[in-house]
Amino acid sequence: MAAQSGKDAGASAALSAELWKLTSDMVAIPSDSKDIAANKRCVEFVRSYFAGTAWTMVDFCKGDGLAPCLYITSNGAQSRHSRLLFLAHVDVVPMSEYACTGSPDGKCFGRGVSDMKGPTAALIHLMRSLDPATLNLAMLVVCDEEIGGLDCAKFAFADADGPHISCDVCHCPDGGDNFRLVTHEKGVLRGRLTSTGVAAHSAYPWLGTSALPALLADLHSVANATALPPSAAAAAAAAEVRVFDNTGPQWHTTFMPTIMAAGGTINQVPGSATATFDIRFTETWTLPALKRVIEGRLATCSVEWVFEQNMLLSDPDTSFMQDALAVLKRQLGRDIEYSRGHGTSDGHWADFQVIMFKPVGGGLHQLDEWLDFPSLITYYEVVAELTATTP
């Protein structure tokens, strides 16, 4: 790589300083997904950053007391469509302290630096530096991605009574660490099993029936289920396969019990018991097929479906993905990998293509969440070029 001129080095240093300040200021806001007041402060921070510009800002909210959304657009207050849409969330998972530490010359640490206040800082700074009159560009800032996105992204993109925000292509930096292009993210199915017994004093267990053994038996049955995948159902010689496999990091459909509850006191036979579970599924299975599998394995429990989300699939052969691939190769000077994500993102609620990649980072939802800050500068430059090539 050629040495930077003094002017270029000065511009790079100024950009780094501005993104560090923006990231630090946003990280300092404790915007836990369930803290609506803190998320409103984060949205207001973004809004104030655009003060005095020609960008149009539109507020959306699904209902009183729910997470806010901010739509920033070059196309006027009545428009809900753009050529290119940036999708960013500013909510985070809880942490005891909210501060950005480290160095802009290396790693920075703090809740949300990677997921995804650092990338959000880059996106809003880029947008503010551009003239909206020359663009067909918008950004949606949301505040409930970490708890499923039902009140923001789903409301904005998919709900019948939502604003129906759409685009030709969307960029979301919520997957694809180290500038990998995401082609798949697993779908999600969550449910709650309930077992019913007969409560009694635990000194006289013969007078009651504990709800726990039946719950545990049904959990074991589901975890070890076998079935024909939908794609193999019509094949004459098709054989059943294991539905769930928690071996990692291979590309499997997984089943994980998460919260269990039974009884109300230590000296009582529990008359009821519940267990929630979280399934992440690959293209081998569909939501209807998984529901049939689970319902067919339950001997005594009832099941309630509490959350479902289809897979995110991003075709690597579209012109948008190929443009992103070319820009990433040019900016990074190396080949770019495709990746498949085990997690989820707000991109799943979209019915348009979502291009996902992000800077180098790690420790998501952990105490040591980190972001390689120089890679955030590279990310800024990549998105700036991609924006210029998506008129």
What is the topology?
Blueprint: H1 6-27, H2 36-49, E1 56-61, E2 68-73, E3 81-89, E4 101-102, E5 107-109, H3 113-128, E6 137-142, H4 153-157, E7 166-171, E8 181-185, E9 187-196, E10 200-201, H5 212-223, E11 226-227, E12 241-242, E13 254-262, E14 268-269, E15 272-281, H6 287-297, E16 302-309, E17 312-313, H7 319-332, E18 338-341, E19 353-355, E20 361-362, E21 370-372, H8 373-388
Parallel strand pairs: 3-6, 3-7, 7-19, 8-18
Antiparallel strand pairs: 1-2, 2-6, 4-5, 5-21, 8-17, 9-15, 9-16, 10-14, 11-12, 13-15, 20-21
Helix pairs in contact: 1-3, 1-8, 3-8, 7-8
How would you explain this protein's 3D organization?
This protein has 391 residues and is an alpha+beta fold. The protein is 28% helix and 26% strand. It has eight helices and 21 strands. The strands form six sheets. The chain has a six-stranded mixed β-sheet. The chain has a four-stranded antiparallel β-sheet with strand order 4-5-21-20. A four-stranded antiparallel β-sheet has the order 13-15-9-16. A hairpin with a 4-residue loop joins strand 4 and strand 5 (107-109). Helix 1 (6-27) crosses helix 8 (373-388). The chain is globular, with a radius of gyration of 24 Å. The two termini are 29 Å apart. The relative contact order is 0.17.
